[in-house]
Design a protein that fits this description.
mainly alpha; globular
Length: 118
């Protein structure tokens, strides 16, 4: 919400990316190695943002064109997102916003994984 200045990094697409990559079933790394995902690693969020950008590129013309998620193409994109998120964390450190965002994303991922596992 731009007017209320709330909800940054809160989108269904970001949350789905986190859930699907690491928390969708009992053999996923986010569950098996839970101690490494609490708090949610910033680099995981950066990876999700980079993958989303690849999806956007695939649909840039309005018709989906398969684009390989390759290191040579997307590592610069990853680094830009990493720098941006690190700068965000630094500039909002007094409010601990990144910590709050990562806790929220992780809590939802854990809720979804518990729901899916029965």
């Amino acid at each position: 919400d731009w007017e209320m200045k709330s909800g940054i990094y809160k989108s269904d697409l970001i949350q789905s990316g986190i859930n699907d990559m690491q928390f969708v079933n009992c053999i996923n790394e986010g569950i098996v190695y839970a101690e490494y995902f609490d708090p949610l690693p910033m680099k995981m969020m950066v990876l999700v943002l980079t993958v989303i950008e690849c999806y956007i590129d695939e649909w840039a013309t309005g018709v989906r064109k398969d684009i390989k998620f390759a290191l040579v193409t997307y590592s610069p994109v990853y680094l830009v997102h990493l720098e941006s998120l690190q700068r965000f964390e630094e500039r909002t450190s007094a409010y601990k916003l990144w910590g709050k965002i990562s806790v929220n994303l992780l809590d939802i991922a854990w809720s979804v994984s518990r729901y899916l596992s029965g």
